[in-house]
Amino acid sequence: MQEPLQDHLIGTTVDGRYGVRSRLARGGMSTVYLATDQRLERDVALKVLHPHLANDHTFLERLSREAKAAASLSHPHVVGVLDQGEDGHIAYLVMEYVKGRTLRDVLDKQGALPPRLALALIDPVVEGLAAAHSAGLIHRDVKPENVLIADDGRIKVGDFGLARAVTATTSTGALIGTVAYLAPELVLGKAADARSDIYSAGIMLFEMLTGKQPYAGETPIQVAYQHVNSMVPRPSEVAPGLAQDLDELVQWCTASDAENRPVDGAALLSELRHIRTTLSDAQLDLRQPSYKPLSPAGAGPVAFAAATHTGHGARQTQEHPTEAIATTASPTEFISHQSNPTTVMGTAGGTGYREPGNRIALPPAAYDERQPGKRELKKLERQRAKDQARAAATPVRPLREGNPRRRGLIWTLVIVILALLAGSAGWFFGMGPGSPGTVPEVKNKTVAEAQQLLRTAGFQSEPQDVFDDDVEAGLTVGTQPEAGSVVRKFQPITLYVSKGAQLFPLPDLAGVTLDQAKSALNAAEMALGNVTEAYDDKVPAGVVLSQDPAKGTEVRHGTPVALAVSKGPQPLPVPDVRGLPQDAAVKAIQDAGLKAVIAPETVNDKSVPKGSVVSQTPANGTLVRGESVTLTLSKGPRMVKVPSFIGKQADDAEKELKKLGFEVRLNEILGGFFGTVRDQNPVDKEVPEGSVITLTVV
């Protein structure tokens, strides 16, 4: 479907940083845009949440926590979360931009994939899930639309964090997920764990091998019913010729009971890679009639992925762009749990799957003559042992023969007992402990008040202490199931009691750079407080001098921490000591916080007395405390012999004397009419340069 050409965000800048260029996709929770991070000058995927989510403050708080958790996961097969924030009424996530296609695009174009290609494509997906599981993250919405294949063949799993945040925000009993890949425990409203992701990955592998999803129905609730009440068929039933190991792998992942699945992505990855090494080339390269190879122009990315993920180790990739690729082939669904699933969905059993046409085909309950695998043999052996034990405990014939009258009496008693049981059941589920009730709101109540409210509503509660930043210690935070939920009264209610805000010790920030301190505060979920600067002669500029509160102080998340940052050594002005005697000059330099150094050589200077400073280096500017100023001392004027100019013309005598560095004073007699030097003082002596020579001129 062609996207509308007009979009009010295109051409704008979100949060003063992200320039929106075009719309890439629109889903049930958000619209994804191609944007440019103007600060770092790179393309990103900007996911703008729909208004009904952006206006939910509780959701935004959860989303912020989930985004931080997802951002902490750095793995080559997981789309990176780069930023999260709000700009007015716009709430957004920023992720890598992956230019390419989704696994859904590949399946739509190629149909069932050869096992070699299917295993190569699923391998990095499971590796990414394994990394997330080890970090305590659950995806909750694994599907082909969330598997991104870059143009260079790199494969990444996207949308970590968002599904959990939305699930936590929906009302109790509401489930988010794509129904075609949904684990049975999620349909039943139970908690998700790593094995729920494994189930979805198993359904996805089934579709990759067969070209079809295992379950189909006219409504999502019909498909959800089959996840709970049916067993996923073997892929070889839909795609004949597939290896038995692939059947066992898919059925192991999609076991109805989560206890029978791989415990997490790492366990599945190990088995997946083992199977790839044991299958023959013929088994790996088996092609189904529905397989449609891409044209040479479009085959590059998938072929590259198959070539680079066949070994036991995954190819390392560099950071590359995001979940900009999205389709509506398998949109995320909301399914209500407020009714019993078996009541809403019906009671039809069997394993249903979509046949050509528009109906649901139920295969007959016939015995499968195919040879069972190793896991199936173990299950059959355990079942056989249980049957034998049950048979041994069951008498073959009654101990004594009955008569018709006694049998009639027994049947009468049975009917009466059944009637009583039916009446009791009606009371139990209608008015008794099995009747439905609404969980009351108990937030900010004392434990006694909250328990009384729950007892009045017909519930029994069990207190459990939890940390809470907003509720005072000793008061109740809430319940599980949440207030407003309709549940059976015999179900236990967990009553959460606040222990107050959880306190965390502050990290030691002294001695690190300001940027490193900011990163440490962010990792500890603390806030940056006031930053001041001060000179310090020992600590380089930009390094933290101190913090307030001090390191190790236990505070709640979000506490602002003030930092004092060094500006480096304080610059000191250099005093001008030229012309001062040596002792006075040295003292002036030292008083300024600097070090005076006397140059080894002295120089003559006619204007500076001997022992005084002629010059200094540097002569001005600033230095750091303790740095040196070099002083050059005068040895006074040099001694020059005064030649005799008596009898010579006064003008010539004056010029020569000035060349020798003397000052000349003329004493003219009778107006100096003849201009001849009659006398001079001094004459034929060594005198200091610059001395005054007196010439008497007649």
Characterization of this structure:
The termini are far apart. The chain has six domains: 13-95, Phosphorylase Kinase, domain 1, CATH 3.30.200.20; 102-348, Orthogonal Bundle (Transferase(Phosphotransferase), domain 1), CATH 1.10.510.10; 437-498, Trypsin Inhibitor V, Chain A (2-Layer Sandwich); 503-566, Trypsin Inhibitor V, Chain A; 571-633, Trypsin Inhibitor V, Chain A (2-Layer Sandwich); 639-697, Trypsin Inhibitor V, Chain A, CATH 3.30.10.20. α2 (57-71) runs antiparallel to α5 (162-169). It is of the alpha+beta class and 698 residues long. The strands form twelve sheets. It has a six-stranded antiparallel β-sheet. Strands 7-8-9 form a three-stranded antiparallel β-sheet. The protein has a three-stranded mixed β-sheet with strand order 15-18-16, with helices on one face. β8 and β9 (155-157) form a beta hairpin. 31% of the residues lie in helices and 22% in strands.
Output the keywords.
alpha+beta; 20 helices; 33 strands; 6 domains; single chain; 6-stranded antiparallel sheet; Phosphorylase Kinase, domain 1; Trypsin Inhibitor V, Chain A; Transferase(Phosphotransferase), domain 1
